[in-house]
C-alpha cells in the first residue's frame, strides 16, 4: 500500500487584519484553512487584493496571523526559517555580490564550509544554465537571468517549502515560459518522494495550468475553490487543450470574472 503523504503545510482558521492609515480595518485573509502534503506544487490564483501575498508572507514568517495556526512540517512557525525559501516578484538578488556568492549566501549563513557551498551553488547554477556567469555581477545580467539566479539560490538553500510570489510577472512571454520549464525541471529533479513543496502565486491562469498539481482560488481574503490538476507532465501545447484542462481554465476564468464564453452564452440565453 502506498505511504500516506506527510502533511507539509497546515493552516487552521487563519485570519489577518490590517488597520489602514484612515483607521479602517481591512480583512486581508479570512478564515483560511487547508492542508498541503509534502511534494505538492500548488498555485494560488485570485484577483488583485484577494490576499495571496499576505498569505505567503505569513507562511514565510514575515507577518504574523491575527488569529489561527500555521504549521509547517509539524511545527507552528515562529518567524522565517531555513526550511522555507521565498522568491518575490522584485528581485531577491544582492547587487553587491557576484552571482555565485549570491547563491552561496544562505549556505554560508547556515555554516557550510567553503568547498561544500561552492559545489552546491555551482551545481544549481549549472541546472539553471548559468555556469558561464558564475563570477558576473548581477548588474551584468538580464531580468530572466536574475530570476534564474533567484531560483538557483532558493533550491540551493535546501528549504523543503518554496514560496514564489509572482516570480515571472515582469518577464516577457518567451522568458516566462523558459523559466517555468527551469522551475519544473528543478522541482522534478529531486525525484518522487523527495520533491519540495511549492506555493506559487500567479495572476496568470495559463501559468497555473502549466505548473500546478492543485490550484487554490482566493477572493476577498477567502479561499473559494481548490482544484486538482491531474494532467501528466510535461504539459504540452496539446495537453493543455484537452477537455479536462479547458474545463479547469473556464472555471478559473469564471472566478476571475473573465469567462467570455459564459458571458456570450448568457447573452444568447437572455
Ligand atoms: N500593510 C498593509 N496595510 C494595510 N492593508 C494592507 C496591507 N497589506 C495588504 N493590505 C490589504 O490587504 C488586502 C490583500 O492584499 P494582498 O497584497 O495580500 O493581495 P494580493 O492578492 O497579493 O494582491 P496582488 O495580486 O495585487 O499582489 C488588500 O486589500 C490590501 O490593500
Automatic annotation (TrEMBL):
Q: Which residues cross the membrane?
A: none
Query: Could you tell me the keywords of this UniProt record?
Result: ATP-binding, Nucleotide-binding, Transport
InterPro entries for this protein = AAA+_ATPase, ABC_transporter-like_ATP-bd, ABC_transporter-like_CS, ABC_transporter_ATP-bind, P-loop_NTPase
Lineage top rank: taxon: Bacteria
Q: Which GO terms describe its molecular function?
A: ATP binding
Location of the ABC transporter domain: 9-245
Q: Which parts of the chain are coiled coil?
A: none
Similarity section = Belongs to the ABC transporter superfamily.
- The name of this protein is NitT/TauT family transport system ATP-binding protein
* Species per Swiss-Prot/TrEMBL record: Labrys monachus
Amino acid at each position: 500500500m502506498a505511504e500516506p503523504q506527510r502533511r507539509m503545510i497546515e493552516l487552521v482558521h487563519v485570519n489577518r487584519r490590517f488597520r489602514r492609515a484612515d483607521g479602517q480595518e481591512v480583512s486581508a485573509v479570512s478564515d483560511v484553512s487547508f492542508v498541503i502534503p509534502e511534494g505538492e506544487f500548488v498555485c494560488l490564483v485570485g484577483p488583485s487584493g484577494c490576499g495571496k501575498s499576505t498569505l505567503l508572507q505569513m507562511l514565510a514568517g514575515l507577518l504574523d496571523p491575527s488569529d489561527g495556526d500555521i504549521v509547517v512540517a509539524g511545527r507552528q512557525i515562529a518567524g522565517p526559517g531555513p526550511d522555507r525559501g521565498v522568491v518575490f516578484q522584485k528581485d531577491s538578488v544582492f547587487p553587491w555580490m557576484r552571482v555565485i556568492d549570491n547563491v552561496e549566501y544562505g549556505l554560508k549563513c547556515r555554516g557550510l564550509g567553503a568547498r561544500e557551498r561552492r559545489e552546491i551553488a555551482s551545481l544549481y547554477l549549472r541546472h539553471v544554465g548559468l555556469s558561464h556567469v558564475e563570477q558576473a555581477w548581477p548588474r551584468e545580467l538580464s531580468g530572466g537571468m536574475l530570476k534564474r539566479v533567484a531560483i538557483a539560490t532558493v533550491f540551493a538553500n535546501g528549504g523543503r517549502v518554496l514560496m514564489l510570489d509572482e516570480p515571472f510577472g515582469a518577464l516577457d512571454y518567451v522568458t516566462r515560459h523558459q523559466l517555468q520549464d527551469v522551475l519544473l525541471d528543478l522541482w522534478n529533479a529531486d525525484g518522487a518522494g523527495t520533491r519540495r513543496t511549492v506555493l506559487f502565486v500567479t495572476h496568470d491562469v495559463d501559468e497555473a495550468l502549466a505548473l500546478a498539481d492543485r490550484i487554490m482560488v482566493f477572493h476577498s481574503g477567502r479561499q473559494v475553490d481548490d482544484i486538482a490538476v491531474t494532467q501528466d507532465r510535461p504539459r504540452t501545447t496539446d495537453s493543455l487543450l484537452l477537455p479536462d484542462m479547458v474545463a479547469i481554465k473556464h472555471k478559473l476564468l469564471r472566478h476571475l470574472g473573465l469567462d467570455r464564453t459564459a458571458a456570450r452564452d448568457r447573452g444568447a440565453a437572455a
